[in-house]
Each structure stands twice: as C-alpha cells, then as structure tokens.
Amino acid sequence: xTDLVDLAALRDAARRIDGIAVRTPLLESPWPDLWLKxxxxxxxxxxxxxxxxxxxxxxxxxxxxxGILAHSSGNHAQAVAYAARRLGIDAHIVIPDNAPARxxxxxxxxxxxxxxxxxxxxxxxxxxxQRETGKAMIPPFDSLDVIAGQGTVGLxxxxxAPDVAVVLVPVSGGGLISxxxxxxxxxxxxxxVIGVEPELAGDAAASFRAGVRQEWxxxxxxxxxxxxxxxxSVGHLTxxxxxxHVADIVTVTEDEIAEATRRLLIDGRLLAEPSxxxxxAAFFFHRDRLPPGRTVAVxxxxxxxxxxxxxxxA
Amino acid sequence: xTDLVDLAALRDAARRIDGIAVRTPLLESPWPDLWLKxxxxxxxxxxxxxxxxxxxxxxxxxxxxxGILAHSSGNHAQAVAYAARRLGIDAHIVIPDNAPARxxxxxxxxxxxxxxxxxxxxxxxxxxxQRETGKAMIPPFDSLDVIAGQGTVGLxxxxxAPDVAVVLVPVSGGGLISxxxxxxxxxxxxxxVIGVEPELAGDAAASFRAGVRQEWxxxxxxxxxxxxxxxxSVGHLTxxxxxxHVADIVTVTEDEIAEATRRLLIDGRLLAEPSxxxxxAAFFFHRDRLPPGRTVAVxxxxxxxxxxxxxxxA
Lengths: 314, 314
Hints:
Two copies of one chain form a homodimer. The first copy, chain A, is of the alpha/beta class. Chain A has two domains: 7-45 and 144-313, Rossmann fold (3-Layer(aba) Sandwich); 50-137, Rossmann fold, CATH 3.40.50.1100. The first copy, chain A, has 15 helices and ten strands. In chain A, the strands form two sheets. A six-stranded mixed beta sheet of chain A has the order 1-2-10-7-8-9, with helices on both faces. In chain A, strands 5-4-3-6 form a four-stranded parallel beta sheet, with helices on both faces. In chain A, helix 5 links the parallel strand 4 and strand 5 (113-117). The first copy, chain A, is globular. At the A-B interface, strand 1 and helix 15 of A face strand 1 and helix 15 of B.
C-alpha cells in the first residue's frame, strides 16, 4: 500500500510556501468557460518552486545544515536553487553538460553550486554524491513532500473557483497532477482532473489506458518540443495518485502545442513554455473529450527559449 | 481648491473592485531591487478596469438604469465595456473609426454598443450623446472616482511591499499615478512615486518641471510607439495630485521602451505593451535619476499589437 497525500499534508505545504512562492491569481481568459492558473508567474517561472520549498523546509535541522542535492536539466534545478537560497541552505545541483546555457546560468544565479556532468552520468553522479556527502536529495516529482507542495495549486483553484467542473494539468513525472488531483478530490468532489501530455511523450496516457505504469524510451519522449514533459515515465509514488484521483489523460500534437502557446501569448497575454501550454491545447483542440462547464487550465511554466518564441511568432 | 483622493476613498474603491478586477501579485523580477506589478493580468489587459468599476459602481440607481457613455480608442473603452457587463449596465462607447479593429472587436465582445465616428467627432459626438440621452459619462482619467479606483494599485503595493523605496508609474492622463501616489503618500510616507513618460509625449514631465500644466500637440504625442501614453496633457483633477504626491517625472526614449518591452518578455516572462513597459525602462536606463532601494515598476497594460510584438523580437 502506498500512502496518498491528504488534505492535512496539502495544507501544511501551503503554510510552508506562503511568502516564498507566488499565490497565483486565477485569470479569466478570452475564451468562454476557460480560466488560466498562471504558474509562469512564479519566481523561477514554474510551479516547481512549490514542491521544492515544501520538501526542503520539511528536512530536519541536521539535514538542512548538511545542504541538499538535486539533479535536473530544467525547471527543477532552478526551483531547488531558488528555494534553498530563500531558506538559507546550501544546494549542489548536478546538470547534464548539454543543458541550455540559459538554464545553467539561472541556476548559478540563485547561488547554487552547479556541477556539469556528461549526460551518461546524470543519475550516477548524484547518487555517488549522496553516498559520499550524506546530503538529502530533493527529487523532481517522486516524493510525497514534493507532491504535497505542487498540490497547493489545487488548493488555490478550489478556493478561487469552487464551481469548477474540469481542471486540466500537464503531466510529466506526475508531481503536479498528483498533488492537484488530491486537493481537488478532497475539496471539490464534483470536479474532474484531467492530465494532458504530448502525443510524442504519451507514456502517462498509455499507462492510464493500460492500467499499468509504462516506461517509454527517452529517445521517443525527446521528440516533443515540450521539453519539460519528456520524462519517460510517471513515478512510483505519483502513479497511485493518478490512478486514485485522475479521470482521464488526453494527448495533444506538436502543432496543437505550438498553436496553444501562440494563442495564449497573442490573445491571452500570457507567455507560456510549450510544456506549460499543453493544458490549453487540450481545451482548444479536444474539448469533445472533456466534460462541459467551467474549466481551469494550469499553465505550468513560462521558461521558453527565445529562439522557440521567435519561431512561434514568425 | 481641488479635492484630493484620500485613504477612505481608496479603500472604498478597493471594496468595489473586489471580485471583479484581479488582485495582481507583486512579482520578484530577475533584476536585483526590481519588483513588477503586472496589471497586464487584468481581464482586459490593463489597470483601467479598476477605475471603470469604481466609477460605474458609484453611480446612483437612476443613472445605472439609464446606461453609461464613454469614448476611447484604447484600453479605457474595453475597461468600461467589461466593467459595465460585470455590473449589469448598458454601455455605449464612441470609438474613432481609425482605431485598431482588434480593440473595436474586443469592446463589442464585452457586449457594449460601439459607435464608430470620424476622428474629428471623437469628442463632439459623445458630448452630443450625453446631452440627448442624459447618460453618465465615464471619463478615462479626470474623475476622482476613476483616480480612486486606479489608486487601488497603490494600496496593494503598500500591502505587499511595505519596505518599498521607489514606485515607478507610467503617465498619460495621470489617473493611475494620481491614485497610486495618493495611496503611497498615505501609507508609505518614506517611499517616493516617480512618473515615467515617453520623451516624445513628455507633456507631464514638462508640466512638472515648469510647475504649470502644459498641453502638447496631439501630432507630437502621436510620435511615440507607446500608444496608451499619447494623451496630450494631464487632467485638471490629476494635475493637483501629481503636484501634491509625485517626486519626479522622468522620460524614456523609443529605443529604451522597445528594449524594456523585450527584456520584460524574454527575461521577465511578462508580456507588456510598450506603454506598460516605460516604468521598467526608467529602471533599466535611468537608475541614476532614481533613489536607491527596493523598486516597484507598475506594468500597466499588455495589449500589444501582434505585429509590434513580432518586430520587437525579430
């Protein structure tokens, strides 16, 4: 039996992130029935700050004094670096040396020690560091503390839109949807939470259909432009949350992701990264698969590469 | 003697806009010392919703039943149309027939009756309508109710950043800066409010230096890309607020406005219209003229023309 995050854990997380993460507003959109939850407004541009702060702040005094470890090539690295600085804790982040320079600089900019490693050592080196230093590892999604932190998104939606019918959430490792769905199930039993994934990285949708957690090849998931959603499987702790609380997982095409990112910017005035716009893509292009009524799309992040932004607008 | 908006009027306005305007968060930016107040997140993309809701909701029952009038080619038209719909009141908006189709459609989309008139009739036709129908006119800035509504921006800044040293506010007719400065003067006497204007539409800066309200030619103010800041003079009611509460008005060049708009989007993940980005431009390029310390730039609107956006990113 795996534990699921409950309301008490979610509310504890909400207290821990208060004053560090942004309490994002729920925005009316130009599209009837659609509201947007802009996690793009977080200090490092994505929801991941919520889970990082929750997990780090729950460490004991000895662990905090020792400092923490994380590995990531994306938003998680920046979130852990930012959260650690705000909580006054040393962070050591392992990043593959092919990660975008922009993200490496941002992580360093938050004061973390960044160690660049060859792609092949991106899992082995952090494990080695953990053994050698005894530092606590902050995982990107497969942790009940991280899930509870990301789930504060769901608490806020329940507060701002108690009459919501559908909540659309991007799925990668599953931390955001697990926590959000736990909150919605506890507070809004009439609402459904639906995951959204790129068709080209549709491991969670395939898992959901099969009823069994599937792993895809990283070579396959790397095909999507939604670089935050290339994780090749949901986690061992997130999967039971998805099974318990998520009503469906739909997939969207690359063209749909690009068009949704463009519409959010041009008509919705919101800069999203492609990974953050998949939820809106499901609303725009697959509404026939969604229940009717007031819908919230979680726009999970805004760290778009400037070259990608230019090409979307060209 | 002209009345100035006081704290009681500001707090009354805050109650009136609650649940209609977005309570925008104060966002940490990638630039040390700079925080952003993103009014771009309002339903129609600009702070003007605050003043429109305040002014309309203060009308008496008979005036509300009669419906309201407004004239504008920009964000004010959309704000009045949106506010009227939310408050269940008919709105008749006069718009010059050379206004962008995008803004005309948006105003109609909020359910207002839109009347297009030749540019030469943009003031005479609304006055005629007012005489004929007895409908109340909602002015874009020169109204104590509108000033109080816009000033809720200042109340929120005082709540979220009580240690702020400098608040930078775009200036056009002066409604936003008048209300914001009234709030800051009442609640944060240690902080200064500084207006920012395009050099090419620098009538308020010239007025401030001269100590006397100046009018510029509309042909001159039309030169700036900041189309929301082309008003050729501050108002008769806003001018005394500026004299009483504003510490300085600085001007920024067109290149500085363009670069600030670009930086806000690429590095700050915030889509601003050029008019909304002038405050950030003052921080980026004229910090030598500003007091040191924690600075808030009000990013007043996000209704940028897609063609302008593309050209900024090209």
